[in-house]
Amino acid sequence: MKLNDKGLLVVISGPSGVGKGTVRKALFDMPNHNLTYSISMTTRKIRPGEKDGREYYFVSKEEFEDRIKKGLFLEHAEFVGNYYGTPLDKVNEQLEEGKEVVLEIEVNGALQVKEKVPDCVMIFIVPPSKQDLYDRLTSRGTESEEIIRQRVEKANKEFKVAPKYDYIVVNDEVSNAADRIMAIIRAEHAKTSRSIHKYYELIGENDENE
Amino acid sequence: MKLNDKGLLVVISGPSGVGKGTVRKALFDMPNHNLTYSISMTTRKIRPGEKDGREYYFVSKEEFEDRIKKGLFLEHAEFVGNYYGTPLDKVNEQLEEGKEVVLEIEVNGALQVKEKVPDCVMIFIVPPSKQDLYDRLTSRGTESEEIIRQRVEKANKEFKVAPKYDYIVVNDEVSNAADRIMAIIRAEHAKTSRSIHKYYELIGENDENE
């Protein structure tokens, strides 16, 4: 019996190269969860095999910009000439249905989400050491030294935003990191600030005994 | 890899009759934990078979009152003419060793602990309904109606302190309640406020790469 029925908005973020995607995948592979993705909206062209509303919601640049003006995105960004964003209305629908909506996003997007939804759960994934992250960033092997240098510089900046997050989870082993996130989700549901309203309903239900 | 090595002071409390002791027992029966009890100090006479420092630390009334004056208790109370209290120094030793110290105490004691150790984890155990608690309080069968009436009245007052706690855990099934508390303990270790110092050490350890 959970005292908070509404789903949580869980933001998984962290420095570039830390393995956010792998952790998120391990989380979704766990049994008995109620996690769901949020489908992003984009202005990039639909590709063969893709379906509107499955990989992305595909919209025109005009529509996207109109939605930005109306504040209809949780967060958005431009990437290689195209917009990408998380539609607020879709996320809210899922939360009302009691689903935990997991967003795996870059640091900048995460901080936008925190501003729009202050009661979201902000999780910062970190490597077991800085060296570990540098090793990952350089071992991909296919990129030029200049690109690697830029990435390391970006990661070093991103390391500094940790205090803006609610939790810091070390990605030492992917399964440990996923376990920790699941524990955080369970604990957050039990937080007094989230559960006190339903608790009052619960203890109010037999007022005739007072 | 945990970013917070220090143990947590976990306070399990809730209205009289809610089953705090049963939940605490189920918690300690779980595998792979690092939980420990705190041994209370008392002025009551040692009984045959008891050992000083095992069931209780047995001290004289004078010594106990001297310790109260010196602020050496996390919480204390008088019960049927004897003092009972939680010695602060013993708890701190255990926390420094990385153990999670679990206190299962009455509401009044719990609120004393919160004042002395603001970063303790306050968990309020509640019944699935008020009626459920009334049923428990009356079904013990051995007490007079007057005593039962007093207990119900006490529980009704205790229900109202929930907002002073960090978490509200429903004791619907004992094993569920214990699971939730274990998740809370894991999550609390990952909280940014508890883990940021070690995180800074971690990302500072390779400063030569910056």
Overview of this protein structure:
The structure is a homodimer of 210-residue chains. In chain A, strand 5 and strand 6 form a beta hairpin. Chain A has helices at 20-28, 61-69, 88-96, 107-116, 130-139, 145-158, 174-190, 192-204; strands at residues 9-13, 35-37, 41-42, 57-58, 73-79, 82-87, 100-104, 121-126, 167-170. Chain A has two domains: 1-34 and 99-210, P-loop containing nucleotide triphosphate hydrolases (Rossmann fold, 3-Layer(aba) Sandwich), CATH 3.40.50.300; 39-97, Guanylate Kinase phosphate binding domain (2-Layer Sandwich), CATH 3.30.63.10. Chain A has eight helices and nine strands. Mean pLDDT of chain A is 90; it is low at 205-210. Chain A is of the alpha/beta class and 210 residues long. In chain A, helix 1 crosses helix 7 and helix 5 runs antiparallel to helix 6 (145-158). In chain A, the strands form two sheets. In chain A, strands 2-7-1-8-9 form a five-stranded parallel beta sheet, sandwiched between helices. In chain A, strands 4-3-6-5 form a four-stranded mixed beta sheet. At the A-B interface, helix 5, strand 9, helix 7 and helix 8 of A face helix 5, strand 9, helix 7 and helix 8 of B.
